[in-house]
Each structure stands twice: as structure tokens, then as C-alpha cells.
């Protein structure tokens, strides 16, 4: 029997950068994210006794199954099974978006594989499981505004939706500066920051100090403060990275150009706030009434490399029909 | 009687960013610089009993004399005079270079005004005096490779040439990303970093730890290590700035483009190292044999906005003829 699940990508407003425990994937700081409606991964999992190894198909192409297999080992351990699985994933992220998909990918895999293995995990347990695949996947188990409590062991490090969700019509614009696979993976990048940046300890302390203010700002729909805290967390993460040995930045020239445009719009009174993850692309936080104004300002420089999305829902089990619809949607893009 | 002096700009390899004492202009860290031959300020000072106020001409145009006057007050105090002065300065820095000139300006003013006031200061005393006008002017009293000891009071904070000078044919390329006056002055920028960057203390500790290795690297002509330390100090300064509240960077998109080109050249085996001060322009440290190769690589992007210079000499008293030659040179540039 095949189990299907869908999980959405998320963008951290208060960032996660650096692990306190690499084996357990415990982060050095808590983080707060928004789950995005328009970018998601659908994953089908079939535990099949006739298989001699795990198999992994992504958007119709056979992939090296090592990372998926390692994750499935954990699911098999929890489910007390030893069967290999066929995993079939569809990334519904426009290739031009240059968005990393590991958050939605491992959240969907955790959701589908645990159910397929006969487990009936709580959302918290799912979040802990997804964490072992990719840190940010922890947060993609939930929709809306989500906090990942850093915790101090496997049991205490998990995400949950914020108790008071913002009622603002939040929107995220994704400006694709480069759709290329990034030169330094987040895993390696984090490790190098921890090992060589003299600013790492101060980054941890500063970022952690933004958590409580952000919870309050989101609960109070204080857009200016949400935006201010978002930019502080992002830029301090990139500053901690820039201070590495040797110095390094994920920023490309166009990253700065997009940041400049955001600042220019803000000087005109438009609420727009930039945040960059471990890559050159710029995500712009705003609210619905300002989306068109921002698109108009950005298009002369970035053309159609800008996507806009509202907040998305929880990861969930879906039907074969929904999965097939995604397959058709991706095929028609191609 | 008019006294004429010339002083050259300098570029810090180990940066100065942030004051420990604003009144005395004591820096938070020591710094190491190279004095540049091709960019300098000539300044003429005449203490004239017929004047009712200080007057300041720069490149033929009357200027607000406030900063010059404040500096002259200190000279008058040391010289026990009360006469006002006519100050006439010529900045021999191509306008396209986008180079700040406060280092050469206050070093030249200190040299000319102290002599004109009847003082006969030692180079160390001159360096301490220049410091009161602009921190980096402290270093422009000396040629070659210079260290500014941060010190702990007015007497102990001064520059001097490194005891063992590099014998490498060092060259600095100045890539002008923008010739506009910078939006945030160094003085304000430093103060904001000290006040709001959570990375400031770590910046001070990290930068100070690069001083002794740089002295050794320069003495041993270890170009790779000189370059590595140069980039670490620069990028960590800019990272400390980026972490400010609100986040800020002096970098423009083309700043990153120039840094990328330097990294590309280095990957090809060319010794080239980037350093940026409190502005968007990129200075590239290399040695004489590689200047043409680098110019060839940079020109497709930056055209003729690239200047190259070797290391320059001490600040010194010059003749009226030398001063007049500079005036002609500037006039002919148009």
C-alpha cells in the first residue's frame, strides 16, 4: 500500500544557523518561520518486501537514495520493520525559484513514511522525526507561524505553531537571484561558521534574544517590529558567515541590489523587509496590499524571477488524486 | 610666511574601526597600514595676524573651516599662539578614485601647521597630533608599512613604521565602485557599530589578534599570509558593521563583483587580496609582477576606474614649487 503526504517549505524569520549537537540535529538557537503555501513537496512511500534496497525517484528521475535511506532507517527502527521502500517525490517548487526544498522534502517524507510504516505519530513526534532529516524540516510539519524550540535533547527539540498566530495577511515574495545549486551546503556552511567565525557565540546570543520579541510582534500584528526583527536575524546570520576563515558570503551582487530596492521601497513608506537564507536569493516579507507595488518596483531589475505566496498549511496525508494532480502540474511546467 | 607640507593616504591592512575614547581619538584596536605613493594632500598654512577667523580653501574652493579650525586650536595651544590661519589644501587624488582623503589631509595639516606655528615636533609627536584630526591620519605621517599602537592615553597612541619593512614590491589597485561621498561617515559609522553591533567585542579581540601575525608576515615577505590576514580583517570589519541595528553595509553590488573577480584570479594562482574600507570601493593588494594581469581581468567590468600605486614616503615639508606643481597637475586634470 502506498501512503501519500504533502509538506510546504518554510522561511525562517528568526534564523537557524549552527548546530549544538550534530548527531541529534539539535540547533544552537530556537527559530521562528512562516510556512509558504505555494512551494511544497508531495511524497509517496511504499514499503515493498520485494525490494532489495531503498529506491528514490524525484520529479521522475532516479536519485541516489543514501540520505533518504538513512532517514528511513530511523522510521524502520521506530516502526520495528525492516522492509525496503520505494520513495517517489514531487517538488512543486518552480525551478526558477532557487528555493532549497529540504524542509518540505523531509517533512513530507517523515509524514508519509511514518504512516506507511504503521506508526501513528503525534505532530510533535513527527516534527522531531523530520528534524533528523533536515533541521528546517522540523518546522514544515506545521502551517502558519511556527517556532522550533531548540531543546536540549531529542525529546525537547521540536516545532509547534505559535499559540497566537498573526492575523495580518502576510505575503512572501521570493526573488530569484540565482537558481543554481548553492556552492556550499547549509550543513557544511553551518559547521564552518561554528568552527571559525569569531562572531558565532554573539550570533547565538543575539538571535536567541530575538525569539521572545518576535513571538510578541507576531501576536500583536506589529508589522514594523516583525520586519525589523526579521532583518536583524538574517543580516546577523550573514555577518557571522562573512567573518569566517576564509571570509565567505552567500550574497551575489544582485542580492545587494534586491536589498537596496527593499530599502528604497521602505523609504517610500511600503512595509517590505528582506531576509536571505544560506543562498543568494532574497525573500521579501510584506502584506497583501503591497504585493503589486513591490512587484512593480522589482520587475525592472528581476523580470519574472519573482514569486509571491501567502502562508501555507500543516503537512498532511493526501490522496493519490492530489499527488497525481501535482505530477500533472509539474509536467505541464516542464 | 607660508609653510607647505605633503602627506600620502594610507590603506589599512589590519583595520581601525571603533574608538576606545572619542575625545582623545584613541582606537579600540591597533592597526597596520600601507602608505600609498600616488594619492596625497599638499597643504599650505599661513598664520596671519590680519585675519579675523580661520579660512580654508580646498582645490581652489572656499570651505567651511570648522573641522580645520578645531584642529588649529590644538596647534595654537601647543605653539602658544592665538593667530588665525589661512589653510590652502590640494587633494592630489583623482576624483574618480572615490578615496577618502581625511588621512592625508590631517597628516599634511598637522605637518604644515605645527611647523608654521613655530613647533618642531618629532615624528611621534606629529603622529599624535594628526590623530586628533582623523584616526587614520596618525598613520599617514609615515611611509611604507606602518603600525598605529592603540595606546591607552594621548601619549601612548601613535604610529610608527614597522621595524622590519617588507621588501616585496607591494602594489595596491584601487577599484572605484562609486566616487560619491559616502552616505555614512566613518565617525558615525564607527559609533553605531560600537553601540549596536553584538559582534563588536569579538571584532576587537579578533582584529587585535591579527596584529602580531601581520608584523611577522610583512617582515618575512609572506605574501599569502599578508593577504589572508588582510582579507580577514576587512571582512570581519564589514561583518561587524552588517550586524548593526538597523543592519547596514557599505558594500554595493559592484563591491561584491570586484571581490568575486579577486577570488577568481586567486583560484588561477594570482596573488591578489581584497580589502574594503568604510565605503564601497575595493582595494586589491598584490605585487608588481601581477598588476597587468589583474588590470586585464578587471577592466572588462570596471574600465578605467582602476588605479595602481606603489608604497609612498613619509609626510614632509615641501617647497612652494612642489606645491605649485601639484596645483598645476590638478588643474590639468580639469
TrEMBL record, chains A, B:
Keywords: ATP-binding, Kinase, Lipid biosynthesis, Lipid metabolism, Lyase, Nucleotide-binding, Transferase. GO terms for molecular function: ATP binding; diphosphomevalonate decarboxylase activity; kinase activity. Pfam families: MDD_C (PF18376), MVD-like_N (PF22700). Residues 7-159 form the Diphosphomevalonate decarboxylase-like N-terminal domain. Residues 172-304 form the Mvd1 C-terminal domain. InterPro entries: GHMP_kinase_C_sf (IPR036554), Mev_decarb (IPR005935), Mev_diP_decarb (IPR029765), MVD-like_N (IPR053859), Mvd1_C (IPR041431), Ribosomal_Su5_D2-typ_SF (IPR020568), Ribsml_uS5_D2-typ_fold_subgr (IPR014721). The keyword Manganese does not apply. It is an enzyme of class 4 (lyase). SUPFAM superfamilies: GHMP Kinase, C-terminal domain, Ribosomal protein S5 domain 2-like. Its EC number is 4.1.1.33. One of its GO terms (cellular component) is cytosol. GO terms for biological process: isopentenyl diphosphate biosynthetic process, mevalonate pathway. Belongs to the diphosphomevalonate decarboxylase family. PANTHER family: DIPHOSPHOMEVALONATE DECARBOXYLASE (PTHR10977:SF3). NCBIfam families: mevDPdecarb. This is diphosphomevalonate decarboxylase. It comes from Lacticaseibacillus paracasei (Lactobacillus paracasei). The gene is mvaD.
Amino acid at each position: 500500500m502506498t501512503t501519500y503526504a504533502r509538506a510546504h517549505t518554510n522561511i525562517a524569520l528568526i534564523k537557524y544557523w549552527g548546530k549544538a549537537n550534530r548527531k541529534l540535529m539539535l540547533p544552537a538557537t530556537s527559530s521562528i518561520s512562516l510556512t509558504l503555501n505555494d512551494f511544497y513537496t508531495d511524497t509517496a512511500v511504499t514499503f515493498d518486501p520485494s525490494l532489495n534496497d531503498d529506491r528514490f525517484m524525484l520529479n521522475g528521475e532516479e536519485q541516489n537514495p543514501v540520505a533518504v535511506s538513512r532517514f528511513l532507517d530511523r522510521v524502520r527502527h521506530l516502526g520495528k520493520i525492516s522492509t525496503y521502500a520505494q520513495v517517489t517525490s514531487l517538488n512543486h517548487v518552480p525551478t526558477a525559484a532557487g528555493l532549497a526544498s529540504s524542509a518540505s522534502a523531509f517533512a513530507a517524507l517523515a509524514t508519509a513514511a511514518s504512516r506507511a510504516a504503521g506508526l501513528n505519530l503525534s505532530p510533535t513526534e513527527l516534527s522531531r522525526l523530520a528534524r533528523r532529516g533536515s533541521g528546517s524540516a522540523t518546522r514544515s510539519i506545521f502551517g502558519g507561524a511556527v517556532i522550533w524550540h531548540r531543546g536540549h535533547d531529542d525529546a525537547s527539540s521540536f516545532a509547534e505553531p505559535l499559540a497566537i498566530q498573526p492575523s495580518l495577511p502576510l505575503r512572501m515574495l521570493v526573488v530569484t537571484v540565482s537558481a543554481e545549486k548553492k556552492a556550499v551546503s547549509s550543513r557544511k556552511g553551518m559547521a564552518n561558521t561554528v568552527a571559525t567565525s569569531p562572531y558565532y557565540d554573539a550570533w547565538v546570543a543575539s538571535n536567541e534574544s530575538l525569539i521572545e520579541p518576535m513571538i510578541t510582534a507576531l501576536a500583536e500584528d506589529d508589522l514594523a517590529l516583525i520586519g525589523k526583527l526579521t532583518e536583524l536575524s538574517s543580516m546577523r546570520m550573514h555577518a557571522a558567515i562573512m567573518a569566517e576563515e576564509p571570509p565567505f558570503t552567500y550574497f551575489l551582487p544582485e542580492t545587494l541590489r534586491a536589498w537596496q530596492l527593499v530599502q528604497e521601497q521602505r523609504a517610500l513608506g511600503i512595509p517590505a523587509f528582506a531576509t536571505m537564507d544560506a543562498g543568494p536569493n532574497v525573500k521579501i516579507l510584506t502584506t497583501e496590499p503591497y504585493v503589486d507595488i513591490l512587484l512593480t518596483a522589482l520587475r525592472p531589475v528581476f523580470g519574472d524571477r519573482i514569486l509571491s505566496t501567502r502562508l501555507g498549511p500543516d503537512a498532511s496525508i493526501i490522496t493519490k488524486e492530489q499527488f497525481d494532480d501535482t505530477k500533472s502540474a509539474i509536467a505541464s511546467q516542464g
